[in-house]
Specification:
Shape: globular
Distance between the termini: 46 Å
Structural class: alpha+beta
Radius of gyration: 29 Å
């Protein structure tokens, strides 16, 4: 395909392969450094030997690609601070962690939970040793204490804690998510346990946070509602922490969540506005150079203010390349721009490759470049107004085609009315952004008229109303869709081969297209084979007992939960989606389960277990039964004692101590998670 004829894209693919290899296979930093150096040296020798040859050998290309793959491994390892001896994790394992003094700096504010304000912090010292590395800070919410600011420096004796794994299968793995941001531990603290050493701004991120705070203080002096302020922060400042859950879910269900993420759409509009505004500079000496430098500085300043998220960094990098190409009046090939921006980003931020927003952004843009011209040619509108909306419609459809497979994989839903919200908002997004920039500028200058602020607030509210209307059309929202990673790759293979066959109709391309459909069907068959299994799961559910018996693609759920609460339970819903469950039934909890050739005895609060006919392999204790555990073990001789989330913690601690004395395995679901019997 034409897409693969661009060398920068081939190198980007190789770099990505190297990053993936390094992520799943732990390769030492020294080994990756040595191998990359050797390959680069061989590549240099081959280049000088063969540079005068008219025809390059295939070995040169192979060495280039292999070197780039090794470069990806090296980049991944080099950015992982745990590979360096000054990382704080190398000190907390040998020191008395509970008494170590930890000095840290706030680097990023996260969305708070119901109990904690959350921050990403840079660890500066452990005791008197200078260290590097990031950690998660959880501070108990105290209404009498202010929210900490970026660049604030504190000292505490609160210990590091391991990041917690999900307690149930198929739950969101927050530990894995944080590790992809080089965060490996967390600190729990109260305001009284933190001693502030400094509150001065001394990094560019601190100044950016101060600017955002100043803007918000100025805007709050006007008649903006909380939801309007939250959307303004998302659209123009790249901060989505204050968006309410209802508004956020509305944008997701309406297929318009990309509008709230500062991305290529926003940065492209900003670039056009800047290019038009600074046009007069071109008439002075070296004006074009000055103009492009100013535009680049503003774009990257905007990216820093927006928090350098994956989406805004990707967009600003790509449009910086576009801005330079516009200055040199050279054609900006979309594939090259994408390839260069992605290559540069992965060199400096290799973990972006695993960021969902990063993946969706690039797939959407690639799909627009590949598919939108094909869709646009299907109809030639006579009037410019129709043509304008037809372009937007085809761009929206093309982008959606590119992100549907991976979006279904991550979010398991498809908003079929996405084109309505996009057609209603995107044509006016440029006006909304330009108006918003003017509003912020006037607010900072204390010159913002109240009627101007009111009108802008009404525009934001109207946008929210449109999105909310689309989101409540539940009959057009397809949810709980199951799709495997094999089906995702097969889907993209179908998209690529169909587009290729449409552009170049030939027998070989037809054959490739048919093969892709066969592979897609094979992915379904293989997925059915993988899910033809038996499992009995004792889930962890605080204050309740919840068990599931999976037979192939059928699930029997045993529980003591209210039916309405059970219908809204995300734990079972996630399990059903990830395991491709087609039929679910519910039943009450009984005292005995035959699990293939194993036996499970359930003892509830009554503590009754007077059985003589069999010996259970497993004993589940629920609802804090008052029993003599030593007597139970002596009489039943179980292989394992299980305590679920319905028990008092004091009971569970006592049972665990007794099992240790008896040298009997004990499984506490609140610590070890769900127990699965196969």
């Amino acid at each position: 395909m034409k897409l693969l004829n661009f060398n920068i894209l081939k190198l980007t693919v190789c770099l990505s392969i190297g990053i993936v290899i390094a992520h799943f296979f732990k390769i030492p930093l020294k080994s990756s450094l040595g191998l990359t150096f050797i390959l680069f040296s061989v590549l240099t020798i081959i280049f000088f030997v063969s540079r005068n040859q008219l025809i390059k050998t295939i070995w040169f290309g192979c060495i280039v690609f292999l070197t780039t793959i090794c470069l990806g491994v090296l980049v991944y390892n080099f950015h992982n601070q745990q590979n360096f001896k000054h990382h704080y994790s190398n000190y907390i394992s040998t020191s008395n962690n509970s008494e170590a003094l930890i000095t840290f700096r706030i680097s990023k504010k996260l969305k708070p939970t119901g109990f904690h304000n959350k921050y990403i912090v840079d660890i500066l010292k452990v005791d008197d040793k200078a260290v590097i590395g990031n950690s998660l800070l959880n501070v108990e919410i105290d209404s009498t204490q202010p929210i900490y600011k970026v660049d604030d420096i504190f000292i505490t004796s609160s210990p590091f804690n391991e990041l917690t794994q999900p307690l149930n299968p198929n739950q969101f793995n927050y530990k894995s998510y944080l590790e992809k941001q080089y965060v490996y531990h967390q600190i729990f603290a109260t305001n009284s346990s933190l001693l502030k050493l400094s509150s001065k701004r001394h990094t560019i991120f601190g100044y950016a946070d101060q600017l955002r705070e100043t803007i918000n203080v100025k805007l709050k002096q006007h008649s903006f509602k909380p939801d309007e302020l939250a959307i303004i922060n998302a659209l123009l400042l790249g901060q989505r922490q204050d968006i309410s859950e209802d508004i956020y879910n509305s944008y997701i269900r309406a297929g318009a969540i990309h509008i709230l993420a500062v991305s290529g759409l926003h940065v492209g509009i900003v670039l056009l506005l800047l290019n038009f505004s600074f046009k007069p500079i071109e008439y002075v000496r070296n004006g074009k150079v000055i103009k492009v430098v100013i535009i680049l500085l503003i774009l990257w300043g905007f990216a820093i203010v927006a928090g350098l998220s994956a989406s805004v960094t990707r967009a600003v990098t790509m449009f910086s390349i576009v801005a330079i190409a516009m200055h040199w009046k050279r054609p900006t090939n979309a594939y090259n721009s994408l390839g260069i921006s992605m290559f540069l980003l992965l060199l400096f931020k290799p973990m972006f490759l695993f960021d969902v927003g990063f993946q969706l952004s690039y797939l959407a843009v690639l799909s627009i470049v590949l598919i939108q011209p094909i869709l646009y040619k299907l109809w030639k509108p006579r009037f410019k107004v129709y043509d304008f909306f037809w372009k937007i419609f085809t761009v929206t459809i093309a982008a959606q085609v590119g992100v549907v497979p991976i979006s279904l994989y991550y979010f398991h839903q498809f908003p079929s009315l996405f084109f309505i919200s996009n057609l209603a908002i995107i044509p006016f997004l440029g006006i909304i952004l330009a108006y918003g920039i003017i509003v912020i500028f006037l607010a900072l200058m204390n010159l913002l008229p109240e009627f101007v602020a009111t009108i802008y607030g009404q525009i934001i509210s109207a946008m929210n109303t449109i999105v909310n209307w689309v989101s409540i059309q539940e009959q057009f929202l397809f949810q709980n869709i199951s799709i495997s990673v094999f089906q995702v790759f097969a889907s993209y293979l179908i998209i690529i081969t169909v587009v290729n066959f449409y552009k170049h109709k030939s027998f070989s391309n037809l054959r490739l297209m048919l093969i892709s459909f066969l592979l897609f069907q094979g992915a379904f068959i293989y997925n059915s084979y993988l899910n033809s299994t038996y499992e009995f799961i004792i889930f962890h559910k605080s204050r309740f007992t919840l068990m599931g018996e999976k037979v192939n693609r059928n699930l029997m759920v045993y529980h003591n939960i209210d039916s309405l609460a059970m219908a809204q339970d995300h734990m079972i819903k996630n399990f059903k989606i990830e395991n491709f469950i087609t039929k679910t039934t519910e039943n009450n909890i009984i005292s005995f389960y035959q699990i293939q050739n194993k036996k499970l005895l359930v003892i509830d609060s009554l503590g009754v277990y007077n059985i003589k006919t069999f010996r259970p392999n497993y004993v589940l204790l629920r609802n804090s039964p008052k029993i003599n555990l030593n007597r139970l073990v002596d009489s039943l001789h179980p292989e394992l004692i299980i305590a679920d989330g319905s028990n008092y913690k004091s009971y569970v601690a006592r049972w665990e101590t007794l099992c240790k004395k008896q040298k009997l395995p004990f499984h506490n679901t609140s610590e070890k998670g769900a127990y699965i019997i196969k």
